[in-house]
Amino acid sequence: MHLFDLHCDTLYKAVNGKSSLNCSEYDVQINPYDIFKTKLQCYAVWLSDELSGEDAEKVFFKAAKLIKSECARLNIPLIFPGEKIKESFYNNTYSAFFTVENALALNGKLENVEKFSQFGVRMMTLTWNAENQIGGGADDEANSGLTKFGKDVIREMERCNMVVDISHACDKLFYDVAQFAKKPFVASHSNSRTITNHRRNLTDEQFKLIVKNKGLVGLNFCKYFLNNDSDKASIDDILRHTEHFLSLGGEDVLCFGSDFDGCDLPNDISSNENMCQIYEKFLRSNVKESIIRKIFYENAVNFFENFDNLRIM
To answer: Where are the beta strands (DSSP E) in the chain?
Structure first.
């Protein structure tokens, strides 16, 4: 089995707990029991909305130092912006991306975009749940759109081949980004609002825009985003969201953004070892194996391999 996972919070846990990236207590284990023939894991450093910009920036640099040292210690390739990924993905058992969850980490400094890129950041969410200097997050009651600084940040991210991630954006920010961006953007860990009516999920119209722009949408395993009755959330719901997105033309944009180590999981998922059960569930439910391969790794590999040359038509 191959796997490309667009989002986990394991790096944040390692920074906060001053631990190894491969701690046995975490949801994400590096190649546990040889489950994955090859795997690429996106490691996000999460910045709480409660932090000041200065403190968020400091957490970022701690994370940058940790992921660099841990990847070197564990002999894991850390793939930088502008680097092709296919060779690394297929020739290494495990490889990694460094990502940022909440552009609060920039601390209002446009020059930090290029600096983050030089530290290896491949993708960054513009917000978490609150409003920041970019625009409004999912919990922003004012539904704030893209600011002038936000436009400058997106322009600079695209110049540095850093992917814009709109997971956690409020609806106004989403549509402003869709109108302003010149390159495809992603929702690294968001499900369907039609299936589960949660503000963190995507509407059908939003999903179709990402399909049109040839971006990516990572299926999220958070139980609150999977089922309106979160206590009943299960792998079955991952399939329900998948089938709905496929019905909207999502075959070439769907992937996984598990949110491991950053969310409350359904009762039948405890770690990335459960990816085998998800694969088998898809097969038993008559999802074509060619589509399963796309969702598990091919769509994400192809997107990032070609991102430098992609433009929204």
So the answer is: 2-8, 38-46, 94-101, 121-125, 163-165, 186-187, 216-219, 254-256
